[in-house]
Target: Dynein regulation protein LC7
Amino acid sequence: MIHQRDNFDWMLRDLADGVPGIQQIVVLSADGLRIARYGGNPDAADRVAAACAGLQSLAAAVASEVPSSDGTMKMVLIEIDGGYFYLMSAGANAYLAVLANQIAEPGLMSNRMSDLVARIGAHLTSPPRRNGQTV
Model:
């Protein structure tokens, strides 16, 4: 759970300011609930978070088919018409998602996302839930 919301928001803003083209940043739990966001609107962030739950599950299933992999999804990059979508593992049961337009440089984005996760990874964890309740 995120305890220092102001510091966390500042770090999301720092990522957005450091990479041209970012339109929205969403931090989500593995079960698709939005933890935090920067940019965009809350409803869009909720939809992105929900979609990411399925995407991270799919990526983990594909990763488990790679003989040298432990089945852990590290990052997904999808090029879409007009931009890019990034999804990165960001701690226990938490993910960092970024939507960016076409001017965003994928190498810079992945490096900056990795740096952010390294700095605040412990704050990005989301406890597992059962029946809508934290366990």
Observations:
- The domain at 5-125 is CATH 3.30.450.30 (Beta-Lactamase).
